[in-house]
């Protein structure tokens, strides 16, 4: 009786008394404070002793009896059920050790935005068209019956597929039908779906070297044998000697990450011919081709594919914001059914009202206006970054002429490893991604400098801190 009185006293105030007392009695039974076989007084006696309403106590006892913590019989006292309270303790490990797997490792873990200069991977988040986007989302959200809120079109609403494909045909030379377009939460989700479609344990997959680290995370999770193919002045290189045929080839032909080189036509044709001959699926990651500062962007590799071996991946993370959680995948017709099935089974879906708002944004010309504005601003920043570094005339730095993209890959010929310098620069509030951290064969030295977050007015001072940190 005393234990019940204590539990009742502990359960007063705050949230529901029924909920609190139920939780307290559960815990007391499991930890032995209320031993099995303990007889509970009648609800009238308990109500008088505790000051709680009888209906409250009845509700608590009925709930615990239903869950198996109490035993009630007609004409007999309610008793605490006989439960082996040590079973759970025996099943638990003696210490809390995190569960890990060698197959699932984050090569590119997300980090908070603490430093703006020269962080890579993010656009100018302050340029996000907040008011226009809010208007489009609100309009679609206020009229939910105007679109299908069921499970239909999980891989993309027809309105967005069609609007996006018109944009991709005009801007990137992508050739496809709307049903070949999938809308997914991220480019990483697209890579995962494609890897599940064509790569199994032990299968060979080619990636660029250096390359985007996230693709290695995906391929490792599939148990693939990842082969790092060196990148030269024309992009990913093809082997001259006989080697294991890849099932998947990952490449960034329009603006190689991180070196920034563009794959010329002869290399593109050689890659397509090789992929068709060995039956490989080429994953074209067109992550930031919108940022072109001289002439028009080079058309996509997908637009040259006549054998159905290129899957084209794009994202709104670099043009709008990663927080939108929206990307797109254009698959060859013969892969469509399998890829849609995998995406659906995996639960990769983007909220309906966001898809409709994006379709309106593209079809109404808002996306094009936004692209013109942000590419102009990014072009000015990256040109200023290159010019400022060139004026320093540091012979240890190899500074390329920027052609496109949101980052500049600067070569380093100094004696101190780029990783050490990058760590030192953090103290000066400068982020310089070490090029060697993206390499898996030949360890190139250099720094990848992003301009998405740093204002133009801060670039020269940030460069001063970077140059001072080189030693």
TrEMBL record:
Keywords: Aminotransferase, DNA-binding, Pyridoxal phosphate, Transcription, Transcription regulation, Transferase
Signal peptide: none
SUPFAM superfamilies: PLP-dependent transferases (SSF53383), Winged helix' DNA-binding domain (SSF46785)
GO molecular function terms noted in the UniProt entry: DNA binding; DNA-binding transcription factor activity; pyridoxal phosphate binding; transaminase activity
Pfam family name, one: Aminotran_1_2
Location of the HTH gntR-type domain: 15-83
Cited SMART domains: HTH_GNTR (SM00345)
Similarity remark: In the C-terminal section; belongs to the class-I pyridoxal-phosphate-dependent aminotransferase family.
Name of the protein described by the UniProt record: PLP-dependent aminotransferase family protein
Origin organism lineage: Bacteria, Pseudomonadati, Pseudomonadota, Betaproteobacteria, Burkholderiales
């Amino acid at each position: 009786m005393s234990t019940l009185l204590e539990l009742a006293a502990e359960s007063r105030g705050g949230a529901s008394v029924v909920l609190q007392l139920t939780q307290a009695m559960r815990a007391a039974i499991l930890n032995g404070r209320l031993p099995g076989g303990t007889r509970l007084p009648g609800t009238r006696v308990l109500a008088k002793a505790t000051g709680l309403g009888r209906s409250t106590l009845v509700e608590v006892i009925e709930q615990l009896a239903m869950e198996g913590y109490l035993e009630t019989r007609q004409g007999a006292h309610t008793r605490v059920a006989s439960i082996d309270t040590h079973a759970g303790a025996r099943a638990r490990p003696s210490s809390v050790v995190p569960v890990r797997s060698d197959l699932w490792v984050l090569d590119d873990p997300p980090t908070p935005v603490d430093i703006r200069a020269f962080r890579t991977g993010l656009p100018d988040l302050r340029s996000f068209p907040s008011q226009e986007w809010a208007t489009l989302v609100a309009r679609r959200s206020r009229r939910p019956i105007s679109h299908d809120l069921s499970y239909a079109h999980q891989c993309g609403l027809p309105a967005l597929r069609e609007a996006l494909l018109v944009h991709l045909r005009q801007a990137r030379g992508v050739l496809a039908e709307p049903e070949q377009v999938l809308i997914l939460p991220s480019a990483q989700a697209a890579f995962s779906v494609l890897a599940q479609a064509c790569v199994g344990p032990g299968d060979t997959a080619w990636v660029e070297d250096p390359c985007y680290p996230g693709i290695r995370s995906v391929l490792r999770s599939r148990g693939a044998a990842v082969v790092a193919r060196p990148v030269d002045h024309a992009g990913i290189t093809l082997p001259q000697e006989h080697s294991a045929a890849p099932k998947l080839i990952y490449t960034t032909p329009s603006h190689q990450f991180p070196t920034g080189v563009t794959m010329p036509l002869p290399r593109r044709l050689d890659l397509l011919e090789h992929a068709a001959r060995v039956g490989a699926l080429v994953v074209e990651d067109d992550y930031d081709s919108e940022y072109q500062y001289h002439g028009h962007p080079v058309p996509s590799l997908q637009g040259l594919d006549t054998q159905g071996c290129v899957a084209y991946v794009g994202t709104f993370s670099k043009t709008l914001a990663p927080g939108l959680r929206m990307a797109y995948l254009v698959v060859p017709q013969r892969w469509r059914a399998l890829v849609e099935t995998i995406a659906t089974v995996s639960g990769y879906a983007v909220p309906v009202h966001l898809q409709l708002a994006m379709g309106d944004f593209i079809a109404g010309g808002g996306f094009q206006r936004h692209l013109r504005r942000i590419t102009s601003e990014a072009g000015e920043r990256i040109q200023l970054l290159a010019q400022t570094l060139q004026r320093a005339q540091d012979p240890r730095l190899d500074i390329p002429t920027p052609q496109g993209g949101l980052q500049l890959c600067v070569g380093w010929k100094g004696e101190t490893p780029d990783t050490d310098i990058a760590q030192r620069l953090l103290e000066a509030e400068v982020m310089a991604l070490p090029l060697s951290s993206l390499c898996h064969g030949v360890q190139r030295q250099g720094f990848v400098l992003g301009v998405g977050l740093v204002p133009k007015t801060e670039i020269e001072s940030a460069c001063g801190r970077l140059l001072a940190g080189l030693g």
